[in-house]
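Structure (tokenized):
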């Protein structure tokens, strides 16, 4: 194992071991594993935490995205605006429904989409008519936008939501990496995921709120969407063996829900600890004098709650060489994500070319995620930064 792993789930487990074991034992004693009281309780707690009317537990973050788009009735002849610099599931959910992902570039500083980047797509690739947007290339009606709060940082929703309204787009937030992030909006602070029509979360074990297996959640304030989602996750059943819709089998397990209820109680503290560690990295890096030279960029937002640092991602020169050097020193790193989605082989049919979305392509060649988790120590962080400085001294 790496001396400094990119994430250390065991450290967290040891701190809450007894609480978790009690919760899992409770489920085992009940022998009720599918939906039931634990899932209902966690859904209520998550809805209260996020400030939403409804929360619907599903089998994964990928399914959350798929089900959210199904609930909106997205299908063939529809397009969905999706960042190209994100995890694959954001776009595959669109393609699974026969709809077309319409890829949007990111801002180089934040790795997030913005109004400017969306307007660039509108100008270059869309027609505007009385109902909104049509992508010129294949004539699909663009029906939704899928902002991804990448690495734990919330997109500029106070600008994106009015833009979506202007073009009559539904807003589905991909909050897989940002459970616990909050932003100030007119009318008060809101949780990431509670701003658009629907918010989709993942409980993959390495997320800020992680389960002990796969899990996901969809939140909404719209009762009608919630009702559809509750049907869609059980094969579209409205009453036993009556199928109102063609849905999926996609439910959150009782064991996952019981574990997540325990972890949710710790989440605010863990988010604060992540932000503190991000701030420490920032100070350590500034002291090296590498910023703006070999280390091209640090994450910008280290203040407040709008970035909960699921990942701490920097941009560097000679990234792959640095990564190999760090691995030799026992420092584990990752690249999220080395190939933007518009250049993935499976999306070749969409006809994008290298150079089409340059900010994302450049980011893919330069980003490096460093170890970050609530239990990471100051000494470990010093070692990481010292080793990076050492590499560039050579
Ligand atoms: C941005 C993003 N979207 C979607 C997903 C999919 O979530 P899951 O792995 O739970 O299916 C993930 C996580 O893996 C993600 O990081």
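Design, position by position:
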């Amino acid at each position: 194992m790496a001396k400094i792993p990119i994430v250390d789930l065991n450290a967290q487990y040891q701190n809450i071991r007894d609480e978790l074991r009690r919760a899992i034992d409770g489920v085992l004693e009940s022998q009720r594993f599918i939906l039931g009281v634990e899932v209902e309780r966690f859904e209520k707690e998550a809805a209260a935490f996020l400030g939403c009317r409804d929360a619907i537990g599903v089998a994964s973050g990928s399914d959350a995205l798929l089900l959210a788009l199904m609930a909106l009735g997205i299908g063939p002849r529809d397009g969905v605006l999706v960042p190209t610099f994100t995890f694959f599931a954001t776009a595959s959910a669109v393609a699974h429904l026969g709809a077309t992902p319409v890829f949007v570039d990111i801002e180089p500083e934040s790795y997030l989409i913005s109004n400017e980047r969306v307007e660039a797509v509108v100008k270059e690739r869309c027609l505007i008519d009385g109902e909104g947007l049509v992508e010129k290339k294949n004539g699909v009606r663009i029906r939704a936008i899928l902002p991804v709060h990448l690495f734990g940082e919330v997109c500029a929703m106070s600008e994106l939501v009015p833009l979506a309204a202007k073009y009559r787009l539904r807003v589905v937030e991909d909050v897989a990496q940002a459970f616990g992030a909050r932003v100030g909006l007119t009318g008060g602070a809101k949780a990431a995921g509670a701003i658009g029509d629907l918010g989709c979360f993942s409980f993959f074990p390495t997320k800020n709120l992680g389960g002990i297996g796969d899990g996901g959640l969809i939140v909404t304030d719209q009762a009608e969407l919630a009702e559809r989602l509750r049907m869609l996750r059980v094969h579209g059943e409205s009453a036993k063996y009556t199928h109102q819709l063609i849905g999926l089998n996609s439910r959150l397990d009782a064991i996952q829900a019981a574990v997540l209820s325990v972890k949710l109680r710790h989440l605010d503290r863990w988010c604060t600890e992540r932000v503190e560690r991000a701030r420490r990295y920032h100070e350590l890096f500034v002291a090296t004098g590498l910023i703006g030279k070999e280390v091209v960029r640090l994450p910008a937002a280290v203040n407040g709650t709008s970035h909960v640092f699921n990942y701490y991602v920097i941009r560097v020169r000679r990234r792959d060489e640095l990564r190999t050097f760090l691995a030799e020193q026992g420092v584990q790193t990752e690249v999220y994500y080395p190939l933007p989605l518009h250049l993935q082989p499976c999306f070749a049919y969409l006809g994008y070319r290298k150079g089409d979305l340059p900010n994302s392509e450049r980011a893919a060649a330069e980003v490096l995620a460093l170890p970050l988790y609530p239990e990471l120590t100051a000494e470990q962080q010093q070692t990481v930064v010292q080793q990076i400085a050492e590499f560039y001294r050579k």
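Reviewer-requested clarification: The chain is about 40% helix and 20% strand. Residues 60-62, 86-87, 89-90, 148, 174, 176-177, 202, 204, 214, 216 surround pyridoxal-5'-phosphate (CB under 6 Å).
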